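Hi F.,

I've been meaning to write this up properly since the lab meeting, where we talked about keeping a consistent format for the predictions we share between groups. The idea is simple: the sequence comes first, exactly as it goes in, then the structure tokens exactly as they come out, then a line or two of notes. No screenshots and no reformatting. I'm using this chain as the first example so we have something concrete to point to.
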Amino acid sequence: MTGERMNRQDQFFYPNKMGNILLRALKELLGRETMDLVMREGGIGDLLDDPPPNDFTKGYPFRGVSGITAGLENVYGTDGGRQKAIELGHLSFMRGIFDFDPMLGIIDMPRRLMPLSMKIRLGMDIFGVVFNRFSDQIVKVSEDDAHYLWIITRCPVCWQRKVTGPACQLATGILQEALSWVSNGRQFHVEQTSCLAAGDLDCTIAITKQPLD
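Output, unedited:
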């Protein structure tokens, strides 16, 4: 992103590559006309004509992520917009995993012979490293007796939003698709239990250790 297009709010960033993946997935999900509407409704119309290059420079602002989630809710309503955000998360993961694999070497993870619990925890740890290393998002992976916990303490998905309940469905969708991919199609219950935008100390997403199927 060129310097003159940056907003004074733009202090934290995704790498351009992540922004590029997200916008390509958004266009695939909605079509260009509705994508443009969503971004304008989310207050990020200034980013429409300046798509990020496909590189690892930290240049796609957090507001460009939260603006998409806000715009989806404005266009489709709260429930409909959050469902669209989950679908966007699914698409974004599948479009992005191949872009990042040359550095991570994990494309064969679903076929690796190891216990499912080990595979899931290893996958979450690796995905956490991706966000912590390449973006300004801060993620910690933890667990309790029944759940794996994806804890975001600096969250682009709800950045500078004020909401009354969990609003990081985009992150939930990414995790759902990542877990399904790692486990060869198994499904897990994935639920956000706290949200910075709702006044909580972090954005926590809890994943059941046992698959649903």
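Notes:
The chain has one domain: 3-208.
The chain is about 45% helix and 15% strand.

If this format works for you, I'll send the rest the same way.

G.
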